[in-house]
Amino acid sequence: MTLQHRITQITRDPNLSPKQKSNFLALEAEASLPYMALSDAVTEAKESGIICDMFEGNAPFKPRYVLPDYAKFLQNGSEYLELSPVQDLDEALNALTIIYHHVPSVTNIPVYLGQLDDILLPFCQGLDPETIYRKLKLFWIMLDRTLPDAFMHVNIGPTDNIVCRTILRVDAELKQIAPNLTFMYDPQITPDELLQIAASNICECSKPHIANYPLHANSFDEKGFGIVSCYNSLPLAGGANTLVRINLKEVALKASSVDDFFNQVLPHYCQLTYELIEARAKFLHEESNFFNSFLVKEGLIEESRFAPMFGIYGMAEAVNILLGTPSNHYGHNAAANELGHKISKALDAIVKSTPVKYGYHGLALLHSQGGMNVDKDVTPGVRIPYGTEPNPIVHIQALAEHHQYYTSGISDILTIDETVKANPLAMMQLCKGALSLGFREFSANVASNDLIRVTGYMIKLSDIASFKQAGSRTNTTWLGAEAAVNTKILERQPRVIAHEQSPTHAK
Amino acid sequence: MVRVATVNQIIPFSCVDGPGSRLVIFLQGCNFNCKNCHNPHTIDMCDSCGDCVATCPVGALSLSLSEVTEAVITKPRVLWDSDKCTQCDTCLSTCPKQSSPKTRQYSVPQMLELIRSQVHFINGITVSGGEATLQLPFIIELFQAIKASPDLKHLSCMIDSNGYLSESGWEQVMPYLDGAMIDLKSWQQHTHHYITGRDNHRVFISLKLLAAEGKLYEIRLLYIPRVSDFDNEINAVAGYLSQLPASVRVKLNAFQHHGVTGEARQWGTCSEQQMQQLAAQLSQRGVRNLVLPNVYL
Ligand code: SF4
Ligand code: SF4
To answer: Does A418 contact B at CB distance below 8 Å?
Structure first.
């Protein structure tokens, strides 16, 4: 298809809003530029689907994920945005509303909205609970309607406070796909009663995710971290400059034996992945002028806190291929699970010992990548393939060991029978069990909820049903609709699928 | 002698067998013969006749050699290799007794070890069946051991039963029991007999005893339209239920065909509407704490 033809198609698509069309047109324009210079080996690995740049574009002029220090912003105001320091809750919500429109990401919509309870709490002194509730509810509705993208992510917890509780109340009431929500849990700090509210919310609307706060906090420095988009943990006041992922299934297919996989093939493709990472980061940091933005000048982000994410997916297929036939053992068989853990450990060793020019303390961060709508016959991250998941406890026990290695995030989604709805205590206990075994983040889909999770982002089944006729106001719905076709999400319940934004217009 | 139980299945995470999340142990064997049994292969004990061995397509079944020890000759036993098994259920359809070779023997220490491996995920354990109380000595020893272990004693111990256990049986387990879920399959003796093959006199005695001890967690009514008689006897049923302690959950289950064989296949299933109607009739007559199914499949 010629460029002109694709542009024609986009401009006339009956199901896209003008804004959505503009986004796709911009991507086509960027894709018409020549790619950064790469060695033949990298180009070949890229073209054959072994490594993938996540369609971030040929000239990366913005980082993939940006996590501004919003506390600092509220405290100092912004010269660039002509805002003075914030005095009360109304001003805080107004200032945030403004800055969100200036925080870029791969989706053009901010993926991180801040640790909202921490940053808003100082402005809630003296306000009665109903006032806080009304203001936050309006804010929540505004977010969903003006920034329609479920990769947009709010963090709350681990402390028990009025903003945290109000957000949980509003979120369960509104059941919106946006914003996405992570609740940080720390057994030392978070009361059981609060965790129980969060767990009951999951039964209601499959949100929030529950993050293992101590585990994440120990992975980053005292400046902190945030959870953004779908389960990406990244340094606060920094972010991810790029995410390049490696398809372990394809790597395993190249290996002649398990030893060959570990000694030759895997290191080789990891090295090519690094080459692509370096090329992309170099363009962003050295040529795009992104780091001259007000976000840097006003100290809301620091260039040194950006790291590339080294993503992997297709672990299940890789293990099954390396084991030979019968080959559906991943997640069910001790030897298969151990081989998986060994691969994660090997990847961790590579990532921790390979310096990059633009990294967090000079390194990339390992990430178990949640898949994209173009992935067929390959399972996201280290997950157990759809439809073959064992019971939730066996599931958790099979995968817990992986979690220690994936500093910048790992997404398992447990599919829970809807009987749990009448028994939220069970949900909480399952969550506690998972976190105590070393899960970084606990996420569950409850069968039969209209609002369901697709990787980290949410879609409404009812939206998918009407999408074919009417399109959708929400950017992520079409991903879900496409996923429904490609991964048969609707055929088997309870079911989970996984995607990150693929900014390609379906051809 | 080490006490062992014959276990049909263990579900490590269930949300419907008592409060919170529970590890549920389904014991093999039942003393009722319900026409509507959803899992008829749990009723009879396998007698190791060996008929199923040859029909297993993956060789997961075998017969052990007979053992000759001090003049005692033991009969060969059917052995099941769960790693090889693909859960095709061919063996279940072969078995002339409608039993299952896919059971395992657990001693109390083995069961405790299993529970310990799941302890972070659960609020308690439930023994179910089949009819769990047929293996009461095992249950008592298991519950006793749980209550005596500092790392397990926070777990609640519950029994899911058809209520046929004798009074003295309940009294033996009572000190270690946190609660029971009892099925009431129908109101009239003859209906109960028609469905289960036994009368329900002892069931009412069990309910009374457990309620008096504050250990009746839930009473379960399976509504089979035109077969179970709860609707015809609505005044009596409601009168009985509303006299139970207010804390007792009254769980209504809707009859469905899943797993059912034989003549009960011809019975009509219970629709959501029929269920709602029964629930409305009960609550109009003062029955509180009703729990309805959330799926009708
Ligand atoms: S269910 Fe298992 S043991 Fe039974 S016949 Fe099938 S494979 Fe063999
Ligand atoms: S399961 Fe049935 S067929 Fe198989 S050995 Fe036992 S009694 Fe015989």
So the answer is: yes
| CB nearest to A426's CB, from B11, B20, B83 | B20
Rounded to a whole number, what is the distance in Å from the CA of B122 to chain A's nearest CA? 6
Clarify whether residues B141 and B217 are in a common domain: yes
CA distances from A122 to A95, A97, A117, A162, A265 (A): 15, 18, 9, 11, 53
Structural domain ending residue among the three candidates B79, B101, B123: B101
Residue closest via CA to ligand 2's atom 6 equals B46
**B182 part of a folded domain:** yes
Domain stop point among B101, B122, B137:
B101
Tell me if B20 and A419 make a contact (CB, 8 A cut-off). Answer: no
* Contact assignment for A422 to B12 by CB distance below 8 Å: no
Q: Are residues B95 and B114 in the same domain?
A: no
Measured distance CA(A395)–CA(A410) in Å, rounded: 14
Q: Which has the closest alpha carbon to A104: A227, A233, A236, A240?
A: A240
- Please give the pLDDT value at position A370: 83
- Dihedral pair phi/psi, residue A328, rounded to 5°: -120, 35
Nearest residue of A to residue B82 by CA position?
A333
Looking at all shown ligands, the one closest to residue B58's CA atom is: 1
* B52 CB within 6 A, ligand 2: yes
Say yes or no: B294 contacts chain A, CB-CB below 8 A: yes
CB contact under 8 A, A393 and B294: no
Nearest to A423 among B12, B15, B118 (CB): B15
Same-domain pairing of B118 and B251:
yes
Are B190 and B158 found together in one domain?
Answer: yes
Alpha carbons A138 and A144: distance in angstroms, whole number = 10
Estimate to the nearest angstrom the gap between the alpha carbon of A127 and the chain centroid: 34
- Decide whether any atom of ligand 1 lies within 6 Å of the B89 Cβ: yes
pLDDT digits (tens, 9 = 90+) for B53-105: 999 999 999 988 766 666 566 778 899 988 888 878 899 889 988 899 999 99
* CATH number of the domain enclosing B174: 3.20.20.70
| Any domain includes B124 | yes
DSSP A262: I
CB B46 within 8 A of CB B97: yes
Torsion of CA B35, B37, B43, B46, to 10 degrees: 100
Residues of chain A scoring pLDDT < 50: 453-458, 468-470, 473, 484-504, 506-507
Determine the pLDDT at residue A489: 40
| Rounded distance between C-alpha atoms, residue A131 and residue A124, angstroms | 9
Of B12, B20, B294, the CB nearest to A421: B294
What average pLDDT score do residues B129-137 get?
Answer: 92
Is the distance from the beta carbon of residue B92 to the nearest atom of ligand 2 less than 6 Å?
no
B246 touches chain A (CB under 8 A): no
Looking at residue A68, its pLDDT comes to 98
Residues B97 and B226 grouped into a single domain: no
> How many domains does one find in chain B?
2
Residue B88 sits in which domain range? 47-101
What dihedral angle (degrees, nearest 10) is formed by the CA atoms of A143, A144, A145, A148? 100
Are B112 and B82 contained in the same domain? no
Beta strands in A12-55 (DSSP E): 51-52
Give yes or no: residues B209 and B242 share one domain: yes
**pTM for this predicted structure:** 0.79
The length of chain B in residues reads 297
Give the pLDDT confidence score for residue B291 in this predicted structure.
87
Beta bridge partners of A367: A311
Q: Is B98 on the interface with A (CB under 8 A)?
A: no
Tokens of A323: 């084991």
- Cα–Cα distances (Å) from B116 to A346, A372, A398, in that order, read 31, 38, 17
Beta-carbon contacts below 8 Å between A and B = 63
Which residue, B8, B16, B292, B291, is CA-closest to B158?
Answer: B16
Same domain, B125 and B206: yes
